[in-house]
Design brief:
single chain; 262 residues; alpha/beta; Rossmann fold; 7-stranded mixed β-sheet; 10 helices; 44% helix; 19% strand; globular
Length: 262
């Protein structure tokens, strides 16, 4: 979970997260949590953008289960994109799954060029969420769908010292806001909110299971991948994460919204 080599996600980091969360995933929950974010949505024959696609797990799932016509994934980490492209070849999905190494806002897509935009645990790394949502609105077709899962907080006040300590231990830029803040920003940027869901209760049990697995059956595998010192360091960070999730300050959630036709 902390930085273990060059970049946010180097080889050791990717291999460890694959061991804990499965091939293609850099965030928890796997395909089941993707299904929660996409619940009730129709992606069949649609062109979809995945912001912060990681190593492609959600991209492949939207093609294989939901019948998306084409899914373009963007991510700022070169090794992550390389891994995603290799997985696309392995799965024979290179004709439908495309991956671009870029940051949100840097790569310009044509207006109204996507029928749906998806993201999972990526928005928290972007400080200007209002501008991000404006740009998403521009590239979505009329009545296009936005489906997002993200790490959030219980409010938008100054983070507690406990939360600051956790974020510092992670070593990543995190700009978490509340679910209520997202609701407000969506309405300000031309979206109609379809659903808002707090996932703290689910995630609390998930973190407990992850810690148990890493301390138990996965420990030797993780040590072999990143070494004992870093494995124990990762566990310490997971314990700090558990603290802020138990406290209720760290509250993952998801939302769905539709672009209002203009």
């Amino acid at each position: 979970m902390s930085l273990t080599d060059e970049g946010h996600y180097g080889p050791k980091q990717l291999n460890m997260l694959k061991t804990v969360w499965g091939e293609g995933f850099l965030s928890p929950g796997g395909t089941e949590e993707i299904d929660q974010i996409l619940k009730g949505l129709n992606l069949k024959n649609k062109k979809v953008l995945d912001i912060g696609c990681g190593t492609g797990g959600a991209v492949f799932h939207m093609i294989e289960k939901y019948g998306a016509k084409e899914v373009i994934g963007i991510d700022p980490e070169p090794l992550v994109i390389e891994t995603a492209n290799n997985l696309a070849l392995k799965k024979n999905l290179s004709d439908k799954a495309k991956f671009i190494c870029t940051k949100p806002g840097e790569y310009k897509f044509e207006d109204k060029s996507f029928e749906a935009v998806f993201s999972k645990e990526a928005f928290l790394h972007i400080i200007d969420k209002k501008n991000l949502l404006k740009e998403i609105n521009e590239i979505l077709a009329d009545n296009g769908i936005l489906a997002v899962g993200d790490w959030m907080r219980n409010d938008d006040n100054e983070p507690s010292e406990q939360m600051k300590e956790y974020i510092a231990a992670e070593g990543l830029d995190m700009f978490m806001c509340s679910l209520e803040k997202y609701e407000s920003l969506l309405k300000e940027t031309g979206f109609k909110v379809l659903s808002l869901n707090d996932r703290n209760k689910w995630y609390l049990e998930k973190v407990k299971t992850e810690i148990s697995d890493i301390k138990g059956p996965l420990y030797d595998d993780v040590v072999n991948l990143i070494g004992k010192e870093e494995a124990d360091g990762a566990l310490e960070i997971w314990e700090k994460l558990l603290g802020v999730v138990e406290k209720g300050e760290h509250r993952p959630g998801n939302f769905q919204a539709v672009k209002i036709s203009t």
